[in-house]
Amino acid sequence: MNPRRTLVGLSLCSLLLAGCAGVSTSSGKGGVKVDAGVTDDEIKIGLLNGYTGPVAAGAIAGAAGFDARLAKANAEGGVCDRDLVSVRADTKYDPAVAVQAYRANVDDIAMIGQLLGATTIFGLSKQIARDDIATLAATSAASVIPLEDVYLFTTPFPMYVINGLTWAQQEFGESGNLKVGVIYQDDDFGEEGLRAAKYAAEHTDGIDIAAEASYDPTTEDFTAQVLAMKKAGVDMVWVHGIASKTGPILSQASQLNFDPQWMTVDSGYDTTLAPQLGNLLDRLHVVTSSVPYSEDVPAMDEVTKYVEEVAPGTKPDQLVVTGWIDASVAVAALERACEKKDLTQKGIVDAMEGLEISTDGLSPDLSYGSNDDADSRIPSRETRINKVDVDAGVLVPVTEFGSTPLADEWSLSDDEG
Amino acid sequence: MTTQTLPAPPVTTPTPATRRPRRLLTGLLVVAMLVVPLVTTPQWQAIWVFSAIAAIAAIGLHVLTGLAGQVSLGHAAFVAVGGYTAIWLGEDRGLPLWVWLPAAGIASAAVGLLVVPFAARLRGLYLSVVTLAVLFVTDYIWNTWEGLTGGTNGRSAQTVQLFGHDLFDDVAFGPFLLSADQQYFYLACAVLGVGALAAYNLARSRPGRAFGAIRDRDLTASVVGVPVARMKSAAFAVSAGYAGVAGALLVGYQTYAVPDQWSLMLSVQYLAMIVIGGMGSLGGAIAGAFFVTAIPQLVALLAGVLPGISTTPTTGGGITTDLLANFLYGLAVVVVLVVEPRGLAGLPARIGSVLRRKEAKA
Amino acid sequence: MDTFIQLTFQGVSLGCIYALIGLGFVIVFKSSGVFNFAHPVFVMASAYIVAALSPFGFFWGILTAAVCMVAVAIGCELFVLRRLAGRSLYLVIMATLGLSVMGQSAIAMIWGVEAQGSTEGPMGRGVLEIGGVSLPWASLSIIAVSLVLLAALWFFFQRTRMGLALRATADHHEAAMAQGISMRRVQLVSWGIAGLLAVVAGVFLGAFPRRVSPSMVDTALGVLPALVIGGFASLVGAVVGGVSVGLMLVLGAGYLTSFGGGGLYVVLPYVAMLVVLAVRPSGLFGRADVERV
Q: Which of A301, A229, A218 is nearest to A263 (CA)?
């Protein structure tokens, strides 16, 4: 046989095969419009996380919480008579790999249920907008809210700072005056925290940012940053960074005889800090927007029950709870899309508009406004303040969920940087 | 100095008798490469695209390290320069592919020349550390120069358009559909083809032979009249040029670029490609690029067959596909170096000799 | 003034850790011509072992880590790098990078990806107050132990037969062999010493206020500019380079925050390194003939 002819034949065959791929909208069971990721039995939801690499621990915990919530939904009969199935893809927390994972899965899932890390979200934002696929962003960075088809499921970080500083002013301020220092990670995450702190100081009498110091994520010695705070004589230090650096910062401050009040965001604390820091944690308050895993609320029993079912042996991690909340949003969106008889990727995006979700007390209620108005898509402005139970390392609430008037006024245009 | 550089084994010039099967083999491989993306799943298609782009960068490193014998741990930095040039011209200025793609190569080559004042004076370990310094200094620049790079959160990249057609839009040929990945793959392959041909010819040209002389012993090279400093500069520039073009295509395909991605590990990956492929072999560099990029997916396939590999990641350790993929990638580098220095490029010869021995026995 | 002294002290203490890591690189490089990119993994692995075993006793942990690291280092030498003897430097570097990748994945398979406790042991968390300056015991122990180790190393190299053999090998391989020095033994000993130094560095790097975590590899790799500044083949250079990098990082963080976006101190060592390379490529303490074309 002529080799050239074989070749032509081969490539024609392959073209034929390629033609079979590609997504088209069709009508499925129950007269529901479907395209990618939905069959008569299943709805597939993508969880694109860095399961290896620097954020692996959080990624794995978040996915476990998500799967647990899906198990609950399936036990109750699924959505639209279909089982909910998660599809995990590792992004290695690297945008290049994230693109690979995204492109490999986007035609096979109805929505992205979890996409971890602001950087990765920004990295995929152009393609997400292009494919019009609803994406739940596992971050609290306010800067991703304006992105098309991207939805937060937690209170954004600036609210943490504004609510936290307002509370601290009443709690620690001497005759209403509070000198605040900010130690922030030298990246967009940390800078957002600094901007929010400045916003709070500008709009509140008595709160004064007396010192600010940044650190690079590779920093191993925090003497300089701590001394900057100490010299300014601040009453309270707001630490806007990751948990693995909170330990060294607090430790070195104690070595340098600097003993202010400390506050940080939920990602600035994890339970493994307790054995290392011990009593140093007495003066630390952590602002959160979800109920800690350890807390005894009715909904938490369900969380633990289903987590034990889908991922036995999962360590108690706050991201299990946020993963559960995340999946609650996903399930609610799919149910709404089902009511509207449109489970296409675009249909789910439309279903997000005006969605209201109660998480049974695991977090403040979440609500999503118009897809065209970014500020209305801030899911909640409520946070609560916790202290640390030094023996168990767990967070114990000091306040209820709530927001301050200043946080209610805040809009995304105030976060300019 | 304690390290000795032994001359690399001489490149065997193929006799007419061996040339024909070799050509046939190359032809078959090229055809396979072009056809395979049409028949594989979307998971693999993205890998083909990344492989083809990585192969372009690997060719650059092949010229620098394989031909001219200079070490670079900073290849990722030059890929980044190309990427940001393309973003600046393509996204910010709205210029077409015909402008940003070559410009990325040229800009990167120009930056490559900045290394030259060091490269001309140093070699071996000191040179590799200079290239590493370039990587760290550029990393700082990317993180600080927010106007260009968007800072730590990165920024979106240029849209890749050919004749007014956006490559991310599916193309229908009658009943057939060419997906975005497939289109992008062919674009990358076209660039790769041109680059490979150029590198092939370069190796056989006068400068190519001069590179070889420098690799084998630069002192001797200078004695016989090779302008060593100039040739080293040329090798750096050419290598950086390839890296730049690869960077432009990479950010275009990612639609995004983040400063953190231009890391030492990326440089090491390019080095691993030419090591695993077989030092000094052009085909090996390309094969190595495909192999290294595909390892995670290969391990995922392996996990379906072998027991004891968990596909669900855990925080508590254990053998998971992702960790195993990383481990095997390191192992592949070490094993190739210790056992089969010719790498993937040496495989046909090895298989050939085994077959011939069997034939002789029969 | 207090601020300056405080920063300097912390810088020196961080610098001592870098010096210990750097010495591990230099000793191996001098004896076998291998630039060992897997050394940071040795450092991290020791910290993990000590942290994992410290519930059973800090010194048991150290002992186990020491035995393991010496074995691993010698294993790498015997089974991988010895077989690459005489091959180009680039291939040797690649092999150690491959080992480094393997080691990192293996550690993640064993201990997972979360931070794993601390290696503080008896160093504790106390602080010595002198004037307005706080000197944590942990930092003081780092400096003291480093000094003792340096003295021991000096004694070893200057006053023992093995040390003499090591120096001779470093000076001239062939001449040393002609004198009947067993290259194999010399190389095994130097890799073993590097393994031991990795344990000490690992313990200090993982001690309060820091923690044992996968990012220790990157921290340890930060020693590269120190090596260039001091010169790859100089023990004194490794110490001076290490301490100056520690000082640059801490003092830079203290005084350079208003320039270059605040993160300038992170690249400061690399800039210093480029300056040294441009002016004196062999490093401040290297011999001038090294590696010039």
A: A229
Same-domain check for residues C228 and C208: no
Residue A306 and residue A68 in contact, taking contact as beta carbons nearer than 8 Å: yes
What pLDDT does residue C287 have? 63
Residues 6+ away with beta carbon under 8 Å from A390: A274, A278, A279, A281, A282
Residues C62 and C11 in one domain: yes
Domain boundary among C172, C197, C217: C217
Cβ within 8 Å, pair A244-C215: yes
User: Chain A interface, mutation test: which of C5, C6, C133, C251, most A Cβ atoms within 10 Å?
Assistant: C6
Q: Look at residue C293 and tell me if it is in a domain.
A: no
Structural domain boundaries, residue C259: 222-286
Residues 173-212 of B with CB under 8 A from C: none
Q: Are residues C165 and C129 in the same domain?
A: yes
Task: Single out the residue in C195, C217, C239 at which a domain terminates.
Answer: C217
Measured CA distances, B95 to A73, B103, B186, B253, B254 (Å): 50, 11, 21, 17, 18
Indicate if C130 and C213 belong to the same structural domain: yes
Check: CB of residue C167 under 8 Å from CB of residue C178: no
Determine, yes or no, domain membership for C163: yes
Q: List, for residues B148-194, the tens digit of each pLDDT value.
A: 888 777 888 888 887 777 777 777 776 677 777 888 888 998 999 89
Q: Which chains touch B (3 or more CB pairs under 8 A)?
A: A, C
**Per-residue pLDDT tens for B347-359?**
777 777 777 777 7
Cβ–Cβ below 8 Å for B129 and C224: yes
A-chain residue closest to B42, CA distance = A104
Q: Which amino acid, B207? A: P
Residue C91 near chain B (CB below 8 Å):
yes
Query: How far C65 CA lies from chain A's nearest CA (Å)?
Result: 21
Q: Pairing relation of β-strands A236-240 and A178-185?
A: parallel
| Smallest Cα distance from B7 to chain A, Å | 37
| H/E segment holding residue B39 | helix B16-39
Query: Is the sign of the CA dihedral C222, C225, C226, C228 positive or negative?
Result: positive
Residue with tokens 């907008």: A129
pLDDT reported for residue B317: 65
Q: Tell whether C200 and C108 lie within a shared domain.
A: yes
Q: Is some CB atom of chain A closer than 8 A to the CB atom of B50?
A: yes
pLDDT band per the 50, 70, 90 thresholds, residue B123: low
- What is the total count of domains within chain C? 2
Higher pLDDT, A128 or C131: A128
Q: Evaluate if residue B260 carries a pLDDT over 50.
A: yes
Q: Which residues of B touch A157 (CB under 8 A)?
A: none
Q: How distant is the Cα of B253 from the closest Cα of chain A, in angstroms?
A: 8
Residue C100 falls inside a structural domain = yes
Per-residue pLDDT tens for B312-342? Answer: 656 566 777 778 888 888 998 898 888 877 7
Q: C25 near C238, Cβ under 8 Å?
A: yes
Tell me: do C144 and C265 sit in the same domain: no
DSSP assignment string, B269-294: HHHHHHHHH-TT-HHHHHHHHHHHHH
- The Cα B227–Cα B204 span in angstroms is 18
Q: What is the pLDDT of residue C262?
A: 64
- Nearest chain A residue to C121 by CA: give it: A276
Instruction: Provide ipTM, 2 decimals.
Output: 0.85
Q: Do residues C197 and C261 both lie within one domain?
A: no
Average pLDDT over residues C247-276: 80
Please determine, for residue B240, whether its predicted confidence score (pLDDT) is greater than 90. yes
| pLDDT above 50 for B2 | no
Residues C181, C269, single domain; the answer is no
Closest CA of chain A from C57, distance in Å: 17
C291 domain-assigned: no
Average pLDDT of each block of 10 consecutive residues along chain A (417 residues)? 45 43 63 80 87 74 87 85 86 78 84 86 86 88 88 91 90 84 88 90 88 85 88 91 86 86 89 79 90 81 84 77 90 88 85 86 86 85 89 85 86 74
